[in-house]
């Protein structure tokens, strides 16, 4: 039968449906560039970073030099790629670790995107070029200790005081919070929810990193505290009011997630495949046993199916036709498929599956966070339920 890992085989075990044929030349070059970065700069040290609970901030500038930060935005130093290229970059980053994809998603889709879409020209000029270069890091302050799936119940508020705004409140589970130079903070005002561009060195602003996490350990997660943070009128995002602003940002980030988790699933499947071919039991590779082959096939099918969903949604986004419900479809199903793959791969590696010598347990625990953030599985289920029935079951 020949070498099962030979990429020239007609049935390539790493790309059974030949999904690579759906990718254009420029998109392929971007994907390969990111894959090399992950191979050279992330994979050699990611087990230690995960074990130690640190994110290597020094790599932000390298990601900036590759054009990965805000890559799907136009102007102000951003690469201006199409959405599918951004998605493929997220896929390769998450094949390394969800923490790196989260960093890029938050920087580009949650911090840079609202400034680009809703900010003043002054705000764009001040922040976007530095953020695109990785010289300034951003975070997104929406979730609160008692306000997750229901952002409309947020308690953080901003009140007028002369020509200034004064912000008070607490945000929780904020990726990049402890290393950020700027925070896009959403707060309740007398005129509805507004976004504020908050330099993190503003008096009254503080970030407390969360520790003892068992998931997304190679990522900074923080609590943001705003204690009478005084900001000028120029700090307000002038182009949006109401929850439409933050929800549109979340939709951008979810798009990156539905691609990214395909990378995590692929990494787990390929680890299990490689292991099964080399691991000998009862005188032959365990890949030769029926139960192992069934596991590998189920993983392979899930990875390829999720990749097809991601590519299709990427093409819809590039055509300007992607709807929020379709994003929910991708986020809902691709994440749960990735979790299933990771758990099956962990099982396939036996005791070796729980060590950081292999990537599987790291991806498996990371995906538990991805399952919850940017809209829980339940919220996306209800979003799809509303889309197909016309009935709102949130309340």
TrEMBL record:
Coiled coil start-end: none
Pathway field: Amino-acid metabolism; lysine degradation; Amino-acid metabolism; tryptophan metabolism
Alphabetical list of SUPFAM superfamilies matching this protein: Acyl-CoA dehydrogenase C-terminal domain-like, Acyl-CoA dehydrogenase NM domain-like
Acyl-CoA dehydrogenase/oxidase N-terminal domain residues: 25-135
Start and end residues of each Acyl-CoA dehydrogenase/oxidase C-terminal domain: 242-388
Single Gene Ontology BP annotation: fatty acid beta-oxidation using acyl-CoA dehydrogenase
Xref: Pfam families: Acyl-CoA_dh_1 (PF00441), Acyl-CoA_dh_M (PF02770), Acyl-CoA_dh_N (PF02771)
Keyword field: FAD, Flavoprotein, Oxidoreductase, Transit peptide
UniProt EC number: 1.3.8.6
Protein family: Belongs to the acyl-CoA dehydrogenase family.
UniProt enzyme class: oxidoreductase
Domain of life per record: Bacteria
Designated name of the protein: glutaryl-CoA dehydrogenase (ETF)
Domain Acyl-CoA oxidase/dehydrogenase middle, first and last residues per copy: 139-229
Name of the gene this protein is made from: gcdH
GO MF annotations, alphabetized: fatty-acyl-CoA binding; flavin adenine dinucleotide binding; glutaryl-CoA dehydrogenase activity
């Amino acid at each position: 039968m020949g070498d099962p890992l030979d990429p020239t085989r007609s049935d390539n075990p790493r790309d059974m449906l030949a999904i690579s044929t759906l990718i254009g030349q420029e998109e392929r070059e971007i994907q390969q560039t990111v894959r090399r970065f992950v191979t050279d700069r992330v994979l050699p040290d990611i087990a230690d970073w995960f074990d130690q609970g640190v994110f290597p901030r020094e790599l932000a500038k390298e990601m900036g030099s590759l054009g990965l930060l805000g890559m799907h935005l136009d102007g102000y130093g951003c690469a201006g790629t199409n959405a599918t290229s951004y998605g493929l970059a997220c896929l390769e980053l998450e094949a390394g670790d969800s923490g790196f994809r989260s960093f890029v998603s938050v920087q580009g889709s949650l911090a840079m995107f609202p400034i680009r879409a809703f900010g003043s020209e002054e705000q764009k000029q001040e922040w976007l070029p530095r953020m695109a270069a990785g010289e300034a890091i951003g975070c997104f302050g929406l979730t609160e200790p008692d306000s997750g799936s229901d952002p409309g119940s947020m308690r953080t508020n901003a009140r007028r005081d002369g020509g200034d705004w004064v912000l008070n409140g607490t945000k929780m589970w904020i990726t990049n919070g402890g290393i950020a130079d700027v925070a896009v903070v959403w707060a309740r005002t007398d005129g509805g929810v507004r976004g504020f561009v908050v330099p993190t060195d503003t008096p009254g602003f503080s970030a407390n990193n969360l520790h003892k996490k068992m998931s997304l350990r190679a990522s900074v997660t923080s609590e943001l505290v705003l204690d009478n943070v005084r900001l000028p009128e120029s700090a307000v995002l002038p182009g949006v009011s109401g929850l439409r602003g933050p929800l549109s940002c979340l939709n951008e980030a979810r798009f990156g997630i539905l691609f990214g988790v395909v990378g995590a699933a692929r990494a787990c499947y390929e680890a299990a495949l490689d292991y099964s071919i080399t691991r000998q039991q009862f005188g032959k590779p365990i890949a030769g046993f029926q139960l192992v082959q069934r596991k590998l096939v189920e993983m392979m099918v899930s990875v390829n199916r999720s990749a097809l969903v991601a590519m299709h949604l990427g093409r819809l986004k590039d055509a300007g036709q992607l709807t929020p419900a379709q994003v929910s479809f991708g986020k809902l199903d691709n994440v749960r498929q990735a979790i299933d793959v990771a758990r099956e791969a962990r099982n396939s590696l036996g005791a070796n599956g729980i060590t950081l010598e292999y990537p599987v347990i790291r991806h498996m625990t990371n995906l538990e966070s991805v399952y919850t953030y940017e809209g829980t599985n339940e919220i996306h289920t209800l979003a799809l339920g509303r889309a197909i029935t016309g009935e709102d079951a949130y309340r």
